[in-house]
Design goal:
heterodimer; A: mainly alpha; disordered C terminus; B: two-stranded antiparallel ribbon
Chain lengths: 121, 850
């Protein structure tokens, strides 16, 4: 893609990537929870009170909140990308119709536009 | 039975292995999160590829998740590493307790044959022993508690790179994982600590297995962590290869390279092979690489490289051997043994052994006494021989694979030349060799090796390839090692300057004006007219390097203002001009390139000094560009620029431009000037067109090229850059030079405070006090200074700067904005005017003909 004062997107590719990103939230949540519970268990195994206390503090101060938020953060990012692609497709279809109406282009040409849009901003 | 000391489980309820096992889940799930983070980064790239224009909020969205994943994953790694660390400490505690308890348990055992050996009940005896061990146990508990405290401290700062560094140093996070932590830069010392920790927890056999398993990529930092027993094992393998040279192969070289700095290895190897066996091994490899003798100029490149690697590693290991102290000290008769072997009549033995010493000496230093004493004794021995000395002792001709690929220039036959070359990185040894019994420069040696202005004096020896010598390469290395100071000690600097002067006066005094090299300074075997006497080609680069290390004196000699007193060169301008001619002769122009760059650096220093002097002479003047424009400093800099140009122009006119045709004179001069400015810019910031990557790091440090380490760096930069006469410098020369000179001056104005607040003391509202040159365009320079970012030095640097990959998008936008603001500012106009005055003076003088 070249540079210029144009915003554009490959709708199909972008939508797929967004879905992929969103799909990773499940794995992320699972790994993060396993990690957190592993550290929690380790706190009980460490034996030495100073180490146990430090491990419990690690869970409270650095893990609980971020672990809980991680799946949502990733899903939000993925959905956002997918939604942008969907929005782009809707606008593209609308644009295609307009082009079809005003320039009497063929359906095939209008459909061709929907694969990739480039609109001035 | 008394109650034994409590182990970790009895004290804290879980076993050390439980703790280490507990690290597994955080470790594996943490690693999974790190991998996921990379997947998300890849997703962000795909998102970017599928969009166009400025919609960053979406294209960078996966990066936020990636960052969160990475941070959590890294915390998991840190937690796991801390658990392993503490579990390991608990294991150590238990081992200590076991030992104590074993002493208690066995203390009550009676020897049936000596029933009266001990009195009292078993329990009483054990209790007494336990009581006596109580302090030891308390020490173990204290150590355990300290480990617990250290671990807890690390856990409190899981995102701190210093926490990660400590865990890597301790061997609890793999070195290979270090890149997961942004902002963490490991030093060589960190790597050494890591391997010391990891390998230190292995048995000798495990260490041996580890070396064997990693032999294709042995990290040099790991070598010191291999224990002496394991090192001796590998030294035994290499020693066996020396004794049966058919077995010398890549593994031999790998082990030598890996352990070349380790004293246990070096001692185990060279205590167990004789010099004769070493010589046989070298000759064996030599004959394999050059089956048709020295004239096989088309030897297999890979085999030849192997030969060089073998010689270098075996030589460097021997150098380590000579430097051993205490229990690793070499035998006191080491020099005797090697003297006997080197001067032996056995064919090729002297050549092979001195070639080994030379190869090692090209890489590292030797024990001062060993190498200077050996060279001195061999020198005396050679002088006492009648007729040819080395040739008859090397009938088959040993090849020096480090010399240029020319059949007539690759001989390792000349043992004394090799020994001189072996002192390349042993300056103390070189000075010792060239010092006589009364502490003065040994003029007899210089008479013999270089010759005297009185050509009839002395019995000069030859370094001619016709006599199977090396055309002065080894001699040049020794002269440079002795003449360039490696110390701030005034006595040493004085000796070095006197020695350098002596060498220059001898070379310049004998230098003829005719063409050709034979007989070469240092030869009386062919009686040719005096005007054809010239320095051996092999010492030209060294003469240039020596002069470069006295760049301030050279500047003053050429400027007609030579400095007197100790520590300065004492050479007339007429003699030095002849030396310049010798430096510039022949194909190797590196000496003159190094000297030219050194004089540009010196010129920059003097421009800097001119500004300082002007400030001193005009106290109280505001440090603003407006004041500067009206001050007359521009004229002062023009004068200094003129002298700088005069000095560099003179050096080139008297050396490389002597034999240049008139139609190529200007372009050749411009190319040499361009390279000098380009190289010098790395030391004091300047243009960065040809020199390329790595240069920007140079501007952040100060280097003293009057000493060997600084000079070595300058030589490296000259060698790394294209030749001055290459197309790169010919094509770029004008633009490169202008930019180099402009930025040199600009940085000096910054250093002197002229590009800061342009309205100091004006406290009225609305007055702009921001610095004239925006801070985003500056980086840290040497000694706490600021310099213009060298990445901006290219004419199109501001456009290319984003491609270097080290700046964020926001930083790039800021730099581009600030750069354009600066380039259009009044202060920049004034700076350009001042610079152009200095440049005009330089240009006018540097381009004058001879």
């Amino acid at each position: 893609m070249g540079k210029g004062a144009v915003t554009g997107m490959n709708v199909t590719g972008l939508h797929g990537t967004g879905k992929t990103v969103a799909g990773r939230s499940g794995d992320a949540g699972s790994h993060a929870n396993t990690m957190r519970s592993g550290v929690e268990s380790a706190a009980g195994v460490a034996g030495h009170p100073e180490v146990t206390a430090a491990l419990n503090a690690l869970v409270n101060d650095h893990l609980l909140d971020p672990v809980a938020k991680l799946p949502g953060l990733i899903a939000f990012a993925g959905d956002g990308i997918a939604n942008l692609a969907a929005t782009g497709r809707d606008e593209d279809n609308s644009g295609g119709q307009t082009v079809h109406g005003h320039a009497a282009q063929t359906d095939a040409a209008a459909l061709g536009l929907s694969a990739r849009i480039n609109r001035a901003v | 039975m008394v109650q034994l000391f409590a182990d970790f489980k009895e004290l804290h309820g879980s076993s050390p292995s439980d703790i280490i096992d507990a690290a597994k889940d955080p470790q594996s799930s943490g690693q999974a999160l790190v991998s996921l983070s990379q997947d998300l980064v890849d997703d962000a790239k795909k998102t970017h590829q599928n969009t166009e224009g400025d919609i960053q909020a979406i294209t960078t969205a996966p990066n936020h998740g990636a960052k969160a994943c990475l941070q959590l994953g890294n915390i998991g790694q840190v937690a796991a590493a801390c658990l392993t660390k503490f579990g390991t400490a608990a294991q150590t505690f238990d081992k200590g307790v076991d030992k104590l308890n074993h002493k208690i348990a066995t203390s009550g055992l009676r020897d049936p044959s000596q029933p009266d050996a001990r009195s009292g009940s078993t329990e009483t005896i054990q209790q007494n022993v336990k009581n006596s061990l109580e302090p030891d146990y308390r020490a173990l508990v204290k150590t355990l508690d300290k480990d617990a405290g250290d671990t807890a401290t690390l856990l409190k700062h899981p995102n701190d790179v210093e926490t990660v560094r400590a865990l890597i140093d301790g061997g609890f996070i793999p070195l290979s994982a270090a890149s997961q932590w942004p902002g963490l830069t490991l030093t060589d010392e960190d790597k050494k600590k890591y391997y010391k920790s990891v390998l230190g927890r292995m048995s000798t056999q495990q260490q041996i297995d580890w070396v064997n398993a990693n032999k294709d990529h042995l990290p040099p930092e790991a070598a010191p962590a291999i224990n002496a027993t394991a090192q001796a094992y590998f030294a035994g393998l290499v020693g066996d290869d020396f004794k049966d040279p058919d077995n010398i192969d890549g593994d031999t070289v790998t082990l030598l390279e890996f352990f070349e700095n380790e004293h246990p290895f070096a001692q185990s190897l060279y205590d167990n092979v004789t010099p004769e066996q070493v010589a046989d091994a070298i000759k064996h490899v030599n004959d394999d690489v050059y089956p048709n003798g020295y004239q096989s100029s088309h030897a297999d490149d890979k085999k030849e490289a192997f030969y060089r690697d073998f010689l270098t590693a075996a030589g460097a290991t021997f150098a380590t051997y000579t430097k051993g102290t205490g229990k690793y000290a070499p035998p006191s008769d080491l020099t005797d043994r090697w003297y006997d072997a080197v001067t032996s009549d056995k064919d090729g033995q002297g050549a092979a052994l001195t070639l080994l010493l030379r190869a090692g000496g090209q890489k590292t230093s030797y024990d001062t006494h060993f190498i200077s004493d050996l060279t001195d004794r061999v020198y005396d021995w050679e002088k006492k021989q009648d007729g040819p000395v080395w040739g008859p002792r090397d009938d088959d001709i040993t090849v020096n694979p480090f010399l240029t690929n020319d059949d007539h220039y690759r001989f390792a036959t000349d043992g004394l030349a090799n020994l001189l070359g072996s002192m390349e990185h042993s300056p103390d040894a070189a000075r010792t060799f060239f010092t006589d019994g009364s502490g003065q420069i040994d003029e007899h040696k210089l008479d013999y090796l270089i010759g005297d202005t009185d050509v009839e004096k002395g019995d000069l020896r030859t370094f001619s390839s016709d006599a199977h010598s090396d055309e002065g390469e080894g001699l040049g290395a020794a002269l440079e090692a002795a003449a360039v100071s490696n110390s701030d000690d005034p006595a040493t600097r004085t000796w070095c300057a006197d020695f350098a002067s002596d060498v220059f006066n001898r070379v310049g005094g004998q230098s003829g004006t005719g063409d050709g090299y034979n007989p070469g300074i240092g030869s009386v075997h062919v009686n040719l007219p005096d005007d054809t006497r010239h320095a051996w080609p092999g010492i030209a680069d060294n003469l240039g390097n020596i002069a470069a290390s006295y760049s301030s004196d050279v500047y003053d000699i050429i400027d007609g203002n030579p400095q007197d007193g100790d520590g300065h060169l004492h050479v007339s301008s007429a003699i030095f001009d002849k030396v310049l001619g010798e430096i510039g002769r022949g194909d190797d122009k590196s000496g003159i390139e190094t000297l030219s760059a050194a004089e540009m650096i010196e010129g920059n220093h003097r421009l800097n000094q001119a500004i300082s002097d002007w400030q001193e002479d005009h106290p109280g003047q505001p440090l603003t560009m407006d004041t500067l424009a009206k001050s007359g400093l521009g004229l002062a800099l023009q004068g200094r620029g003129s002298t700088n140009g005069e000095v560099l122009g003179h050096i080139l006119n008297k050396s490389v431009l002597v034999d240049i045709d008139d139609d190529k004179l200007a372009s050749t001069r411009a190319a040499y000037v361009s390279k000098a400015v380009d190289i010098a810019g790395g030391f004091i910031p300047g243009a960065d067109t040809v020199l390329g990557e790595g240069k920007s790091e140079l501007v952040k440090s100060a280097f003293d090229i009057s000493k060997d380490q600084g000079l070595d760096l300058l030589k490296d930069k000259v060698a790394e850059a294209p030749d001055a006469t290459s197309d790169e410098y010919r094509n770029e020369s004008r633009a490169t030079t202008e930019r180099g000179l402009e930025y040199n001056t600009l940085n000096q104005l910054i250093d002197h405070g002229y590009l800061g607040d342009q309205h100091p003391g004006d406290h009225r509202a609305g007055v702009d006090h921001s610095p004239a040159i925006p801070s985003s365009l500056l980086v840290d320079g040497p000694n706490g200074t600021k310099v213009v970012n060298p990445d901006l030095y290219d004419a199109d640097g501001v456009d290319k700067i984003g491609k270097t990959g080290q700046y964020s998008d926001a930083q790039i936008r800021q730099m581009r904005h600030d750069w354009n603001t600066w380039m259009n500012s009044e202060e920049r106009n004034i700076a350009e005017g001042v610079t152009s005055q200095a440049q005009d003076g330089f240009d006018r003088e540097v381009n004058k003909g001879p």
